[in-house]
Amino acid sequence: MKPPQPRFLACAPAEAAERMVAGSTFDRSCAQCRARVMIAPSGRAALARTPETVVICYDCAIAQMAATGQGTIELAAPAAEIAREIRTTQPNTWRKRN
Ligand SMILES: [Zn+2]
Question: Residue 7, exposed/middle/buried by CB under 10 A (0-12, 13-18, 19+)?
């Protein structure tokens, strides 16, 4: 039997994202490159439901899928919730800290 596929949460790198969803947190890092990532409330809720999920940045997620030719993408929350988050983004305050 094949071991279960790990589940990843692909997140925007905190320094690169120009905008953020209100209530996003910046306390986690990419499991591969260690870049600090931004996790929106929908992602935080998904992590709370499945804590074994591996946090990874978009760049590493895309590179991994390209390298392996495997991986599917699903939304971390119902589409309407993701759409609401996208519609209400604000400038990324993390970038101005530094
Ligand atoms: Zn990464």
Answer: exposed
What's the CA-to-centroid distance between 56 and ligand 1, angstroms? 5
For the chain, which residues make up each domain, given as ranges? 8-88
Look at residues 19, 6, 14, 8 and name the one whose alpha carbon lies nearest to residue 43: 8
Give the mean pLDDT of 29-51: 96
State in Å: Cα 25 to ligand 1 middle.
17
- 3, 30, 69, 82 from 11: Cα distances, Å: 24, 8, 20, 13
Indicate yes or no: pTM above 0.90: no
